[in-house]
């Protein structure tokens, strides 16, 4: 037999042996004693997110709060961009007050240029007379009002005034009678550049 043959048996290292002595009853060993130990050579569990005791994450609450703030900011910006009163032109665009007036008896269908920069028309079906509306119209636009009588006819007059000054009037009469009143507004003067 070879001299290198060894008998199989338990082998212990110095560290394992020291830990075993500390666990023995009545032992006062210092192998496990130290900061963070429980006096028995074991370290108490540590609170971590991925091991030990589980902790609650605040991430979903934080994401919900940020989402809510972004939504509120979006609604506020939409209100600022859109503006509060649809009859008023955008700030910074020169306008003139235009008054549309329709007189007579009964009802009439009408359309008039509102205060939009694009010159879109506002319509009113079955307006009870007398009817009057003042809007701010951007300079360079042509304020216009068109009226149409119903089948019963009648006699109705439309008028346009700019800055309180009467500009034009027209009369419609008879069944489905029509009339249009309009006037040009001067174009805005270009801003002087330095």
Write a structural description:
This is MmpS family membrane protein. Mean pLDDT is 75; it is low at 11-24 and 26-35. The protein starts with 13 loop residues before the first helix and ends in a 12-residue tail after the last strand. A hairpin with a 2-residue loop joins strand 6 (155-162) and strand 7 (165-173). The protein contains two helices and eight strands. The chain has 194 residues and is α+β, with helices and mostly antiparallel strands. A four-stranded antiparallel sheet has the order 4-1-6-7, with no helix packed on it. Strands 3-2-5-8 form a four-stranded antiparallel sheet, with no helix packed on it. The chain folds into two domains: 30-81, no CATH class; 95-182, Immunoglobulin-like (Sandwich).
Fold-level CATH name of the largest domain:
Immunoglobulin-like
What is the first-to-last residue Cα distance?
A: 111 Å
Strand order of the largest sheet: 4-1-6-7
Structural class by helix and strand composition: alpha+beta
Q: Could you name the CATH class of the largest domain?
A: Mainly Beta
Shape: elongated
Write the layout of secondary structure elements.
Layout (H helix, E strand, L loop, with lengths): L13 H10 L35 H24 L12 E10 L2 E7 L7 E8 L2 E8 L5 E5 L6 E8 L2 E9 L4 E5 L12
Antiparallel strand pairs: 1-4, 1-6, 2-3, 2-5, 5-8, 6-7
Describe the structure concisely:
This protein has 194 residues and is α+β, with helices and mostly antiparallel strands.
Key words describing this protein structure:
four-stranded antiparallel sheet, Immunoglobulin-like, 2 domains, elongated, 194 residues, single chain, alpha+beta, 18% helix
């Amino acid at each position: 037999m070879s001299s290198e043959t060894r008998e199989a048996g338990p082998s212990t290292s110095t560290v394992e042996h020291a830990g075993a002595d500390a666990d023995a009853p009545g032992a006062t060993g210092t192998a496990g004693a130290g900061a963070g130990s429980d006096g028995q050579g074991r370290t108490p569990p540590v609170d971590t997110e991925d091991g030990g005791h589980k902790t609650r994450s605040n991430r979903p609450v934080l994401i919900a709060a940020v989402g809510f703030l972004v939504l509120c900011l979006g609604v506020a910006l939409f209100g600022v961009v859109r503006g509060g009163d649809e009859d008023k032109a955008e700030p910074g665009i020169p306008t003139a007050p235009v008054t549309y007036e329709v007189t007579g008896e009964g009802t009439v269908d009408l359309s008039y240029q509102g205060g939009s920069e694009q010159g879109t028309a506002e319509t009113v079906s079955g307006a009870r007379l007398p009817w009057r509306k003042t809007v701010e119209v951007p300079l360079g636009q042509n304020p216009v009002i068109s009226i149409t009588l119903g089948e019963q006819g009648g006699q109705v007059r439309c008028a346009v005034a700019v800055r309180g000054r009467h500009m034009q009037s027209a009369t419609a009469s008879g069944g489905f009678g029509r009339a249009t009143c309009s006037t040009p507004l001067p174009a805005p003067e270009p801003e002087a550049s330095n």
